[in-house]
Amino acid sequence: MLGPFPLAGGAGRGGGCGRADRQTEKRSEGDLMTVLVIAEHDNRGLAGATRNAIAAAGKLGMPIHVLVAGAGAEAVADAAARIAGVQKVLLADAPHLGDGLAENLAAQAVAAAGGYTHLSPM
Question: What family is it from (predicted)?
Fold first, then answer.
């Protein structure tokens, strides 16, 4: 399992836009960073690797959100919401996400990842 990964342009990546300084300021004010776990699933149930990633993210002591991208994946989103430590589930439900093609999932993950400091892909 890989991750969690800081987003591109963040601290340590040489983004040069001052984002690292703003993140440091927010952390010093007490704001928690949040982990986004991108769920691996078959549109019917979560893969064990997703549960493992959520458990690992829980050890970071940060809020955990899960992105479920698929077609007719409401049951997967419900299952993710019942996992201990998950605060929020983002459901992207569309026909073009049903086959789990990397190109479609990547576009959805990038769209969802804007407000997150760490990603854990499956």
Answer: Belongs to the ETF alpha-subunit/FixB family.
